[in-house]
Structures are given as structure tokens and as C-alpha cells.
Amino acid sequence: MIAGEKANSLYMTEEVFNNATGTQNKELFKIPNATHIETYRKPQYVKQASEKLTQFFGSNL
């Protein structure tokens, strides 16, 4: 899962992540200084999310 470190919704992401079952192969990546909307709109945050997804899926698929 990916979330902005300053997202108002971060607590929900953390709760869902902690309650996810059926695998130990999970990761919560918090984008430093990003709010929820910024993770979709600011190129530097989109880049971080894209790189993390590429790394995670490359290692796990």
C-alpha cells in the first residue's frame, strides 16, 4: 500500500494494512511530506509511488 505521510486518510490506510491477512508479503510505503491528493498530482510524489510499485511487483510477481 502507498500513502502520503501527511495524508488526512493515513490512519485508514494503516488500519487496513494492519488488518490485512493471508500474506506476510506486504508493505506500507509512506511518501514523505505528501498529502493524499499530492500523491496523485505532484510529479515528484507520483514518481516515488511508481518506482515503489515497479520494485514491489518486480520482486513479487
SSE inventory with pairings:
Elements lengths: L1 E3 L5 H10 L9 E3 L6 H4 L1 H18 L1
Parallel strand pairs: 1-2
Q: What is the compact description of this entry?
A:
InterPro entries: AB_hydrolase_fold. The chain is mainly alpha-helical and 61 residues long.
Description:
With 61 residues, this protein is mainly alpha-helical. Helices cover 52% and strands 10% of the residues. It has helices at residues 10-19, 38-41, 43-60; strands at residues 2-4, 29-31. Strands 1-2 form a two-stranded parallel ribbon. Strand 1 (2-4), helix 1 (10-19) and strand 2 form a beta-alpha-beta unit. The mean pLDDT is 96.
Give short descriptive properties of this protein.
61 residues; mainly alpha; two-stranded parallel ribbon; flat
